[in-house]
Amino acid sequence: MAGFGTLVVSVALALAGDELVRPGLQALLFNWITVPYLISGTIAWWRRPESRLGPLMIATGFVMALTALQWSTIPVLFSIGHLLDLVPAAMFLHVFLAYPTGRVVGRLRQVVVVCGYATAVVLQLAKIVLGINPDSLFTITTKPVLAGRIEQVQLVTMSVLLLVGAVLLLVRRPSPSLARRRPVALLVDSFGLALIMLALLFVAGLRGWPQVETVRHVTFAVLGLAPVVFLLGLLDARLARTDVGALLMELRAHPGGDLREPLARALHDPSLTLAFWLPKYGSWSDSEGHSVTLPGGAGGRATRVIYRDHEPVVALEFDRSLEDEHELLDAVAAAAGIALENSRLQADLRARLLELQGSRARVIDAGQQERKRLERNLHDGAQQRLVALALELGLIAGRSASDADTKARLMQAKQQVTDSLDELRDVARGIHPAVLTGHGLAVALESLTAQAAVPVVLEVTDGGRLPEHVEVAAYYVVNESLANIGKHAHATVASVRVTRSDELLVVEIVDDGVGGADTERGSGLRGLADRVEAIGGRLRIWSPVDGGTRLEAEIPCG
Amino acid sequence: MRVAIAEDSVLLREGLTRILGDAGLDVVAAYDNADDLLQFVRGFPPEVAILDIRLPPTHNDEGMRAALQIRERHPGVGVLVLSQYLELGLAMQLLSESAEGVGYLLKDRISDVEDFTGAVRRVAGGGSAIDPKIVSTLLQRRRSDDPLDLLTPRERQVLELMATGASNQGIADDLVVTLRAAEKYVSGIFTKLGIPSTRSESRRVLAVLLYLRA
Q1: Which of A129, A468, A497, B100 could form a disulfide with A508 if both were Cys (CB 3.0 to 4.6 A apart)?
Q2: Smallest CA–CA separation between A447 and chain B, in Å?
Q3: What's the rounded Cα separation, in Å, for the pair A496 and A498?
């Protein structure tokens, strides 16, 4: 379309070339007006198909191109070009007053635009019919005085309409105080200036000012500037959308973070505030939880409520000038909606995870407390009684020195009691290592490593007692690892190292055995991993075949 | 010989009092907690204090702490710690300074009345009584090119007895050999293992235990 328009202009200029005072400059300025309207119109149409502004701008460029036909020497073409002479002026008025939606809103604006077209078409036709230019094929009669009057009325009327249009534009010029409003303000300025210059051009032509050519050039230059500024505005909107892209990235990178800051940045409105809907209380609150009321359009503010499942979630409150930028608002609102949904889902997931971890830890802790209680009962009950029984048997045996047979049988019975004590000791110790509760990890590991099947080098950085669940987990890690080394590793030596920082206890067990251990085979290691993970820790195993085994448990202890 | 006891099980407290009394020892105090024992020891230091390692109120480390406190503040009072479990780490804590006048035995040992009263007397007299299980645990630890492999079976027996705190006479009695033979075994072991020889029987307990633990 644009290409076609430009082609028309070129043809027209080629046909008309020799008629012009300064063909080069004239052609350049002509293209300067026509081409930007065609390009801007095309881009606007493509970017915002719902807006009529794009087609309107293209039509303006097209009609502008057609007016070049009046420089033609071919009568038909000249007549058409001449007829359309003032239509672009009306169309400029139309375009500028229809910005940004493409619709002329407001009775006064509509009247101005309609009058503009009437002036450009009806009065033009009238003066042509009356023979303002005898070359036109539309000339019916020759009444130059009347035609000249009509032309005067036409040009004055058009000038007035243009000036009214300029005033209408400039009174509603947005304040450039907001950084993001500057392109729009600039655009309106350029539209207004173009209308004023056009009016000035008509007056200059009417009055026959000697500077009319200069005024024409300046006017054309300004007219061509408007679509360029318009293009910049479009670009700015594009940039705003890339800000929305950055916003989405940021919201994804920091889920659950402060929502207001990134939203304010994307909207270029530092005054943005958020209000959150509290369904329980049926009211809005700020991020601190204080109750607020939405302004609802008062005090230069506007509000956009984001809904989820027909329920309000959050309200964005911003400078009213933002209301023009529906796309940006829609995009930001959508991004905020996604972020809110994400953080809600994540919060939900985190809550469930915490609950699960909590219940897992509680199950282990409850088991641990139960084991402690059992061991304690065994210690205070059965074990003490069996010791007392062994003592009694020993005493009786000592007194029955005369009866060798009885003494031997008593000693045998005593031996059986002490054997039972040995077994009971192992059982009780398996249930809960009391030394851990009484004396801590370092002491408990001393016995454990001393009793291991292979010589073990033990290294414990002592830093006082740790929470019981940490000590117990670390103890079982070492216990199970040493048992595995004894059963499977065929190692000659092993080492146990326990180091700690403020928030982490690290238990490392290394052997020089056959390797090939992993947590998926063998329920012992899997159970160990479960136990460590249940209290927020991590268990890792390096066990290459024939390369020994290194097991490392990290347990939070802060 | 004056003995003070802290044991929270009534059965065992009475049993201990009885067998020690029967053996001619004077049980001057028997408490069910560590604080009362400590207070008694401060006022009337006995020759030996016998403590259960788990005592009220928490049954965690009260007995152990009291034992270490007596060792530190009353070097003249022998300390014999009784426990249902043996912990190498606790043995080494008790012996950290010296093996003089200290004992660490399984509670079961009470039932071997003669051995037990002998151990009490030894600790009271500045000797040591380390449970044979501690020693055998240490001896179980295999290692490559172990110098212990150089020992004859007899010498191993002597080493074990030495580590429990037995005197040369005690070793001789136990193995039914002459005192001179026992002494010969002892010096042979020290030479083979390269442990600096010492005439003090309690000092050699620590030396042997540290050697075995290394």
Answers
A1: A497
A2: 5
A3: 7
